[in-house]
């Protein structure tokens, strides 16, 4: 069953190639770790990151990340640092799981996918 946020043309798009999905997840992990490294003091930065994830994650068929991005954005707007930390933990955990799934050699054939 096709997710409602992804049209039929996009499913065949190179945006959903494993390599691009992996780069998106790796960038998300790096951005969150950088934000956390600042002690979550920069709420505006976390709000912007949440907004970016909310808007772009579904493009890569990561609807769960879009939902969590919206939560991150809302918590940062409200200054709820404990909730921000919890959402960041969940995003990092789920992103690492997603990364393992993408890298699973039984999922993608090098012949059928371009790992650019």
Q: How many domains, as an integer?
A: 1
Oligomer: single chain
Largest sheet data? none
Calculate the terminal CA-CA distance, rounded to whole Å. Answer: 28 Å
Structural class determined from secondary elements? mainly alpha
Proportion in β-strands: under 5%
Shape summary: elongated
Q: What is the CA-based Rg, rounded?
A: 15 Å
Element string (H = helix, E = strand): HHHHH
Number of helices: 5
Percentage of residues assigned to helices: 55-70%
Question: Which residues form runs of ≥5 with pLDDT under 50?
Answer: 1-12
Q: Provide mean pLDDT, rounded.
A: 81
Question: What's the count of strands?
Answer: 0
Characterise the protein shown here.
With 116 residues, the protein is mainly alpha-helical. Helix content is 66%, strand content 0%. The chain has five helices and no strands. It has helices at residues 8-11, 18-37, 43-56, 63-78, 81-103. α2 packs antiparallel against α3 and α4 (63-78) runs antiparallel to α5. The longest helix is centred in the last third of the chain and has 23 residues, at 81-103. The two termini are 28 Å apart. The relative contact order is 0.17.
Secondary-structure blueprint of this entry?
Elements: H1 8-11, H2 18-37, H3 43-56, H4 63-78, H5 81-103
Helix pairs in contact: 2-3, 2-5, 3-4, 4-5
């Amino acid at each position: 069953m096709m997710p409602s946020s992804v049209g039929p043309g996009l499913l065949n798009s190179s945006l959903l190639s494993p390599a691009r999905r992996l780069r998106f997840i790796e960038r998300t992990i790096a951005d969150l770790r950088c934000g956390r490294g600042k002690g979550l003091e920069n709420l505006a930065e976390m709000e912007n990151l949440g907004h970016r994830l909310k808007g772009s994650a579904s493009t890569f068929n990561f609807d769960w990340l879009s939902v969590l991005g919206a939560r991150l954005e809302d918590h940062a707007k409200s200054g709820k640092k404990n909730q921000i930390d919890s959402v960041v933990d969940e995003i990092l955990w789920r992103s690492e799981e997603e990364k393992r799934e993408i890298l699973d050699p039984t999922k993608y054939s090098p012949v059928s996918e371009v790992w650019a």
